[in-house]
Fold this sequence. Notes:
The protein is an alpha+beta fold. It is built from seven helices and eight strands; from the N terminus they run ααβααβββββββααα.
Amino acid sequence: RTLLDLPVEQRSRLQPGLTYRHDPAMAVLSSWIENRELGTPLLIRAHIYGEPRRDGDSDADDSDYRRRILATMAHGSPIIHEGAHVLDWLTYLMGAAAEHITDAWCLRTEDHLRNPNITGARLSWADGSVALVEIGWWTGAQPHCEIGVLGQVGYAVLDCATFRLERHTAAGTEVVEFPGDRTSRCFDRQLARFVELIRGDRSTAEPGLDDAVATLELLERIVATAEDVSTPDARHGDRR
């Protein structure tokens, strides 16, 4: 709220740290979508898992990690923490934020957790594209993290650990990889763009504060929708 009250000139010089949208693989995937090289409308599956469960019984580092992650989840579901990046990716890839939350759900894998540790949502865009988003923390084993984009022409898969990108079409398979590790690559590009912004060589932050706020507002709506449909009455209404 403090940042939103800043004068326009100062707000325009703020670049939120949505780091991984800066990966060049994102730009390639965005161009495939924009040029309809996969087709339209699209089905997007984004399955993102992190912060695996550790018992913390034998190692001090594990115990500290357990306390830190559980404390973080006490303040909100992981989709708020992790989902800010994922929804920003989808907005960037599709050229606009999702217009509708069709439905949402949530799950606690342990009763003592203050908030659900797995949340999913179905989002839609004006062109008929649909995204199935699933974000979770704190399970001992976890699904592979990836984003799949399926259209009538092709299927693209982005490995979220490495940002290795594949495109599968009737003509065959294309692999796109960039040198270096994902983290260093993205931070370097993010920093370079921020320096350009501060020096005046770039007029607009990428992403901007308004982009980040819109993403958080959409996440809060997803959480509220998931909580509404996860009440006992809603869950068992079809049994009456």
